[in-house]
Amino acid sequence: MSLTTTYNDMKVEQIYTGCIAHAAYYIENNGVAAVFDPLREVHPYIDRAQIDNAEIKYVFETHFHADFVSGHLDLRKKAGAEIVFGPGAKPAYEATIAKDGQIFEVGNYKVKVIHTPGHTMESTTYLLIDENGKEHGIITGDTLFIGDVGRPDLAQHVVADLTEEKLAGYLYDSLRNKIMPLSDDLIVYPNHGAGSACGKMMSKETTDTLGHQKKTNYALQNMSKEEFIKTLLTGLTAPPGYFPQNVLMNIKGYESLDTIMDRATQALTPDAFELVANETGALMLDTRDAEDFAKGFIPNSINIALDGNFAQWVGEMIPDVKQEILLITYPGKEEEAITRLSRVGYDYAVGYLKNGFDSWRKSGKDFETIKRITSEELEKQMKSGNPLIIDVRKKSEFDSEHIIGAINVPLNQINQHLAQFPKDKPFVLHCAGGYRSMIAASILKQRGWKDFVDVIGGFDDIKEHTSIKRSEYICPTTLL
C-alpha cells in the first residue's frame, strides 16, 4: 500500500507492507530522490524513481533493523545510492556515518539528522525540510511510533552491556530533548504500525501529527525517567528469536536478492523434491491455506500460510535463518514466498515443488491429513464429555477471554512445551481464526502426534456460533 502526503509543499510517499507492518518512505525533488528504511526487494523504489525520472541519491537508515533485512545494499548496487546511517553506526561495508545535526540535500529538500538513541544506540530521526525551508515532518524509525515507542531490549542481544534499562533511559532523553521540543504540526512517519513486534501497543494509524502524539502517546506524558523506564518495560514480551540474526545481517551485509532468487527458483518434480529433502535435511515449508493443507500434505512438512503474517511466523517458528527450505506453494506463488522469506533473512530456500501439492498427490506418493471440526461440533463434544482443549493464542488473548477449562500454550512457545500435548488421549486445538492452530497442528504431526482435531474458524467462530461458556479470568491451568 502506498500513501502520499503533501503538506507545506513537500511530498512524502509512505510505502506500507502490511504483512510485516513496515513503512518505507520515498521523497523526490527536482530529479533527486531518497529512500528511507527500504525492504529487501528494491525494484519498487527503483521503479518509483523512474516514474519521476529521478536519481536515487541516498538510502537513509534509521537504525540496524531487527525485524527485517533492509534493501540498502541492493539499492546501492543497482541505483548507486549512498547509504547513510546515524551517529555511532559501525556497518561492515561502505556507508556514510552522519553527524548529529548534519544536513543532506535531496534536490531542494533538506534532510536533517537528529540522533535519537534508545531503541538502539545508532537510532536516528530524520527531519524533513521542504524547498521553502519549512519543517515538514520526522521519519522516526523505531524511536517514535503512533501510540508507542520502540522497545529498548533488542540491542542487548548483540551488545550485552546495553541493558534494557540503559536503553530505556537513553530513549527517555531522546524523546524529551530531541523530539518533543519540535513543532506540533510536524507529521510523524514511523517505521512500523500495529502488528509489529518492535513495540507493544502501536496504533493502526501509520501517520499523525507530533502535537497529537504529545497529547495521546503514553510515552510522551509527564513522568520521571524512572517512571518512564518502569512503564516501558512493563508487559514487554521476549522478542522473536530471529531478531538478533537480522540485526547482524544488516550490520555485516548479505547476499543480493537476485542471488537468493536464482538459488531458490528451482522447480522440482515430486521425485526430485523427495530426493533433495532426504539428501539435505531441508525443512519442507507448505505455504498453502490451512483448509487446503489439512486436506492433504507431504509427511513431515510444516504449514505457515502465505496469506497471513507469514514472515513473522516463519521467524518465530524456524530458529535458524540459515535453515535450508523446500517450498510447497500454490502454482505461481513461488517467487512471492521466496521474497517474503528473504525479508526476514531466510535466504536458503533451495527449490520448490513444481505444480504444487497436486503434482505430489498425482504421483501416488504418501500424504497425510489433519482432522478439523466446526465450532458447533466442539460444542456437542463439550455437552457429551470433557474434551481437553488447548488454546495456542498469545497469553494476552487468552487472559482476555477463553473457553473455561482450556489450557494455554502460545504457538511461539510450543517447542518448549510439547510435553503438555498428550499422546495417550485426544485433544482439541484452536487459535483465534485457524491460522496459528494449523501451524501448531503441522508441528505436532511432524513430531508424531496423531489423535487431535483443529477447530475451523477458531475462537472467533466459537464466540459467534456457539454458547460455549467463556471466562474473562485467567484459568488455573494456564501454563504461560
What would your notes on this structure say?
With 480 residues, the chain is of the alpha/beta class. The model is unreliable at 473-480 (pLDDT under 50). It folds into three domains: 2-247, Ribonuclease Z/Hydroxyacylglutathione hydrolase-like (Metallo-beta-lactamase, Chain A), CATH 3.60.15.10; 255-362, 3-Layer(aba) Sandwich (Oxidized Rhodanese, domain 1); 372-471, Oxidized Rhodanese, domain 1, CATH 3.40.250.10. The chain is built from 16 helices and 25 strands. The strands form five sheets. Strands 1-2-3-4-5-6-7 form a seven-stranded mixed beta sheet, covered by helices on one side. Strands 8-9-10-11-12-13 form a six-stranded mixed beta sheet. Strands 14-18-17-15-16 form a five-stranded parallel beta sheet.
Please provide a brief summary of the model:
With 480 residues, this protein is of the alpha/beta class. Helix content is 30%, strand content 22%.
Query: How many separate domains make up the residues?
Result: 3
The CATH superfamily of the largest domain bears the name Ribonuclease Z/Hydroxyacylglutathione hydrolase-like
Any low-confidence stretches, pLDDT <50, length ≥5? 473-480
Strand count, sense and barrel status of the largest sheet are: 7 strands, mixed
- CATH architecture classification of the largest domain: 4-Layer Sandwich
**Average predicted local confidence, pLDDT:** 93
Name of the level-1 CATH class of the largest domain: Alpha Beta
Kindly name the structural category: alpha/beta
Number of strands: 25
Strand content range: 15-25%
End-to-end CA span: 36 Å
Shape: globular
Rg value: 24 Å
Order of strands side by side in the largest beta sheet? 1-2-3-4-5-6-7
CATH topology of the largest domain: Metallo-beta-lactamase, Chain A
Number of helical segments with 4 or more residues: 16
Approximately how much helix is present in the residues?
Answer: 25-40%
Keywords: Metal-binding
InterPro entries: Metallo-B-lactamas (IPR001279), Mito_Persulfide_Diox (IPR051682), POD-like_MBL-fold (IPR044528), Rhodanese-like_dom (IPR001763), Rhodanese-like_dom_sf (IPR036873), RibonucZ/Hydroxyglut_hydro (IPR036866)
Protein name: MBL fold metallo-hydrolase
Domain Rhodanese: 278-369, 383-467
